[in-house]
Amino acid sequence: MSEGNVAADQLRLLIEKIERLEEEKKGVGDDIKDVYLEAKATGYDPKIMRQIVRLRKMPQHDRQEMEAILQTYLSALGME
């Protein structure tokens, strides 16, 4: 087997692995969407839940800084 064939086989395997992972990612995305739909059906607000998930991913310091800036902007606009 030549180096070209080995490289082509390796490339094909990597592409197929990416394709499988993309399919799994789509499945997980669909599962997450279903959970938000379930939450909505039981009276929760999915938009707020998404925001909470996003905030929980942030380091505490970054979240606190963002909240402080938000409060400053709201105050400057007379929205408090």
UniProtKB/TrEMBL annotation:
Domain GapR-like DNA-binding: 7-78
Alphabetical list of NCBIfam families matching this protein: PRK13694.1
Keywords: Coiled coil
Residue ranges the record marks as coiled coil: 4-38
Organism expressing this protein natively: Sphingobium vermicomposti
Protein family membership: Belongs to the UPF0335 family.
Name assigned to this protein: UPF0335 protein FHS54_002252
Coiled coil listed as a keyword: yes
Residue stretches spanning the membrane: none
Molecular function GO terms recorded: DNA binding
